[in-house]
Specification:
The chain has helices at 13-17, 31-40, 46-49, 98-101, 106-118, 172-177, 184-192; strands at 7-12, 24-26, 42-45, 55-66, 69-75, 88-89, 92-93, 119-121, 126-134, 144-152, 157-159, 165-171. By secondary structure, the chain is α+β, with helices and mostly antiparallel strands. It has one domain (3-192): Nucleoside Triphosphate Pyrophosphohydrolase. Strands 1, 2, 3, 4, 5, 6, 7, 9, 10 and 12 form a 10-stranded mixed beta sheet that branches. The protein has a two-stranded antiparallel ribbon with strand order 8-11. A hairpin with a 2-residue loop joins strand 4 and strand 5. The longest helix has 13 residues, at 106-118. It is globular, with a radius of gyration of 16 Å.
Length: 197
């Protein structure tokens, strides 16, 4: 099955956002968003929803911190999405696939799979939902909605998919030096979490 044939989790825009098509990262109480995703989410073929802004594809997006440092990724030109080639990122994210879920919670299962697919943690990590992300500025982001997680660790972290990503821990000030070369979601996370220096 190709990537465009995978069933991915979507929620109708009007149900998830109402008329509030905000741009950026929001903190606060996420329970209403999570309840909406869990009760109104359905799985649809990815190829059928990639150009449909009436549906929001739900994307767990994980940033990693160790003390004052942040894990800075750089996407290679061998990754799956040409639009992201050679851009910097402070997070990894992906769709929630129907195969992730089984009988479990779709959000938790999608988050767990994304972390295991992308990263190797040398020590236990603590993961918390710290924001929701929406961006209406282009056709790609109009069809996605991010659940922004912060994974904190005091150990080593390595990229698992080294053909598509490289990276390592850097000071937050160094990450900010790459702001102009970052994918849009990373820019919004830096700003929304107060990490922009």
């Amino acid at each position: 099955m190709g990537k465009m044939d995978e069933p991915v989790l979507v929620v109708p825009r009007t149900v998830l956002l109402g008329g509030d098509n905000f741009i950026g990262v929001r903190g606060g109480d996420f329970s209403a968003y999570l309840a909406c995703i869990r009760s109104h989410g359905t799985f649809r073929r990815r190829g059928d929803v990639e150009d449909d802004p009436s549906l929001k594809q739900i994307i767990p997006y994980v940033a990693v911190r160790r003390a004052g440092d942040v894990f800075l990724f750089r996407r290679t030109d061998r990754g799956g999405d040409v639009r992201l080639h050679n851009l910097y990122s402070i997070g990894v994210g992906g769709h929630i696939n129907q195969s992730d879920v089984g009988d479990g919670d779709p959000v938790d299962a999608g988050l767990a799979r994304e972390i295991e697919e992308e990263l190797i943690f040398g020590r236990p990590r603590r993961v918390a939902l710290v924001g929701v992300l929406n961006d209406e500025r282009n056709a790609v982001s109009q069809v996605h909605f991010g659940l922004v997680y912060l994974a904190q660790t005091d150990g080593d972290v390595r990229v698992r998919e080294t053909d598509a990503l490289s990276g390592g821990f850097v000071a937050l000030s160094v990450a900010n030096q790459h702001y102009d070369g970052m994918e849009a979601w990373s820019q919004l996370v830096l700003e929304g979490l107060g990490w922009r220096t």
